[in-house]
Amino acid sequence: SSANQIAYDRSRNDSSYIAADPNSFEPFSKKKICNAAGAIHSDGFLAATRHVARCVGMESSRKCIEMEEIGAAHHVYDQTSKSVESVEMSGIGRKESANYILGRDASESKRLSDQHEVLLKAAGGYFPVPLSVENEKLEAILDVGTGNGAWLTGLRQSGKIPTSVELCGVDVSAKMMPNQALCHKSGLDLRVQDLSEPLPSSWDGKFDYIHGRHVFIWIKPSNWPGVISNLERSLKPGGTLVIVYPGTTGYDLKTEKPLAHNSAPYRIFTAFLKYTASLGFPREAVATLPNLLVEAGFESKSILTTTKRINLGSAEPDPELRSAATHHLDFLLQLMQDIEHSPEDNLPAVGDQLGWEKVLQGWREATDAGFFYDLCIVSARKPEK
């Protein structure tokens, strides 16, 4: 597809990605197929492995392709079930959710790892707001919607907290979590948990700090009051909750004004937001978070909303992050192309309306020139008593 082609184009100019012509997979061995898919997957393109399988006539048969090692766990792609299972994941649990539309396979795990450093810098580090307790006195931290545990693993390796701090993470799916042996080695306690259901009673009043990045946008707003109540109960008195989510506006790097409405990034962002809203995830609902926090018992005077900046493409000044910043949102292109059912206004068909080549060319030009969008952080503190 045209989105796969943009991945190939970028891989030729980026040594961190494996260059492989998407039209020449057939002669490849399975391992080379895997590597080629990994190159495209590293851009977050969810359909890449299915595309590879179609090229070699595997779409209708039940076959597994051994994937590269992603993070700390080996994964296998099951072409029939369209899922990725960790070979060493027994005993963690299999609870699933249909809410997360970006996939839970090896490509999504890789995308989240690449995205982690970009978002971490944008947020200002692991602690974007002051905590009520000094880092040296922290005892327990919880990451909700932890995915592959990249945030927790990075925090453990950062040296910013004592090695004695308990690091816990929950996610509604175990598919991207590292295996238990590696969790133990890293000192991580990762569990399958639906946030709309009560957290373990042993966690009541346990955590100094609860962090949730890009998780509330995949929970239906009708469930937010219950989720916030569950998190409040798990915080220590004086503990801090931080909720991070992406903004909805992209900005031109030179003028620092919102992107033109006829620009490719604006049209893609708008299409994506309309599509997710049609699934029951309206982004404007985040405006209700401060009131919901007050209703859940957080100190009203402690509630703070701040806006940071995520640099994309050449807008990222750090050369070590520029590649990840360039590829950060490319997955939207493939996602919009793969959508089978559009909302009533048919906005996800933006590529068909404008012509995909025009959209892709505009996307390349925008990322080459650089642009940025908002990262929003809402924080609140539980009363001391």
From TrEMBL:
Domain of life, source organism: Eukaryota
SUPFAM superfamilies documented for this protein: S-adenosyl-L-methionine-dependent methyltransferases
UniProt xrefs under Gene3D superfamilies: Vaccinia Virus protein VP39
CDD domains, alphabetized: AdoMet_MTases
Family matches, as PANTHER family: TRANS-ACONITATE 2-METHYLTRANSFERASE-RELATED (PTHR43861)
Protein name: Methyltransferase domain-containing protein
Organism: Puccinia striiformis
